[in-house]
Amino acid sequence: MGNSGTVYIHQGLNQLFAAGRSLILVQTFEEDRLQNLLEGLAKHYGKELWVWSVNLGIQRGAETIDQTRHPEDALAWLSNREERPVIWLKDMTRHDRPEVIRGLRDLYYRWRDGGFAVISATSRLIPPDLEREMAWYQLDMPAQVELVAAVKQWSEELGLSIALSDQVISATLKGLTLAEARHALVRLKNDPPPEDRVLAVLQEEKRRLVSKIGTLEYIPRVPKLNELGGLSNLKEWLAQRRDLIVSTDDKDREIVPKGILLMGVSGCGKSLCIKAISSAWQLPLYRIEMTRVFSGAFGSPELAFANACRLMEELAPAVLWIDEIEMGLSAEGSSAADTVLSRIFAFFLTWMQEKPPGLFVAATANRIDLLPAEMIRKGRFDQVFFVDLPTQSEREQIFEIHLKRRGYEPAAFTPEVFADATQGWNGAEIEQCVIAAVTNARMEQRDLQLKDLYATRKQIVPISQTMEEQVRHIRNWAYERAVRASAEE
Ligand SMILES: Nc1ncnc2c1ncn2[C@@H]1O[C@H](COP(=O)(O)OP(=O)(O)OP(=O)(O)O)[C@@H](O)[C@H]1O
Ligand SMILES: [Mg+2]
């Protein structure tokens, strides 16, 4: 690809270069992307990029070097030269012969003073004899900066008339591979939408990708973290891990967050919270539709679920939302549906262990006591949070959020007093109360008054009252087993 614009330096690869690793195996399916990355790195280190393949031999710029198609010949030729370029050896480790291994080892020692030999392969094909000399790097999904750089370059090449801001690019195209992102751009080029539709067209590309599979939904618009009242322990947990989730640093691999399980009383903001994670971390959000998984329309539920998980691996980095993960489980157990679900759980638990980093699973459950014990054991989810009925100060915050959202200045409505008058309420009920009061005032064609709120308050009976028994059961269960999402008061 062209040389215009700024050079993007891939962090993970650069770390190996900076450490002077002269022999590197890069595992990837994206050869054109690797070419770009190597061009960037070569430039950064003031070197030329040469390329070897078994079909063409060594290519140095426009020049093809004779008699270098055999790997051993190419390696001997390189070892004998003074230059220290970056050489990209395509699939070289497929030629697993003693002469080739010897040649690679020689090159490794020769080039420790400044050359870089990068072998590309689609799997981790390191000859056992070279385990120590050869560094291995699995190319991750394009990071935000890389995506932005690539999109800028293509926009230029395609002569795209629409200028995309960095923010739009990362918000709408993140989660696509570079190839898919490019399709989206070509679509903009061939069928330019009006300016206010650009975002929708780009989002459409993502939706199209996941809708193929039927059981996943891309959730385009997500509320911000400040629209979620209370739950400060959970918010703090999220803030601390924001940088880790998209880290491409190898040493972070083990500690990249895998997922959380939110359990708790209905209407207290579990779903809202998951959407807020996606916006706080600026990662696209996808939801597995469990009802569709179970519908049978996409193959057996087990297969449909596994397929959705596999597709998600390709969409990482992203947040995968599994709402009401216990759906279909009955308290009695052993029904036919339970058997299917236990097979899905078994798959899910293994998958959680092996899924790629950067794919964050956020699951919610109302009846976590029904879930198998392995599900909640440490190591699957990083944390199990209990989202309880909001405390006094949380009710205050939630009340303020919903007044503000509807254009009212909260201070005029004594949030503190209102919060005190709504003990035992959940967030959904507080919101409902605000909506009903606003509606009443509108119908009488006047502004909202305090009395409207108190009038509607009397009409709402909270579930902590109507379902007292169940709510108490959930709370008792969770107190001992989960971390509270709210700070203690
Ligand atoms: N902490 C909160 N801050 C702001 N709004 C809230 C909060 N909790 C609930 N709400 C309001 O109530 C609505 C319903 O909440 P949400 O769907 O997130 O609850 P949930 O815990 O997922 O409930 P369920 O278990 O029934 O799915 C939200 O869309 C939001 O408007
Ligand atoms: Mg919910």
Explained architecture:
This protein is of the alpha/beta class. It folds into 4 domains: 11-138, Rossmann fold (3-Layer(aba) Sandwich); 144-212; 225-387, Rossmann fold, CATH 3.40.50.300; 392-423 and 427-461, Helicase, Ruva Protein, domain 3, CATH 1.10.8. 47% of the residues lie in helices and 13% in strands. It contains 20 helices and 14 strands. The protein has helices at residues 11-18, 31-44, 71-79, 98-110, 144-158, 166-173, 178-190, 198-211, 232-245, 270-280, 290-295, 301-315, 336-354, 373-376, 392-405, 415-420, 427-443, 450-459, 463-466, 468-481, and strands at residues 23-27, 49-53, 57-60, 63-64, 86-90, 116-121, 135-138, 216-219, 259-264, 285-288, 318-322, 359-365, 383-387, 483-484. The strands form 2 sheets. It has a 7-stranded mixed beta sheet. A 7-stranded mixed beta sheet has the order 8-10-11-12-9-13-14, sandwiched between helices. α4 (98-110) links the parallel β5 and β6. α3 (71-79) packs parallel to α4 (98-110) and α7 crosses α8 (198-211). The longest helix has 19 residues, at 336-354. The protein is elongated and about 90 Å long. The model has no long low-confidence stretch (mean pLDDT 88). The chain binds adenosine-5'-triphosphate and magnesium ion. Residues 228-231, 266-272, 366, 398, 401, 427-428, 431 line the site of adenosine-5'-triphosphate.
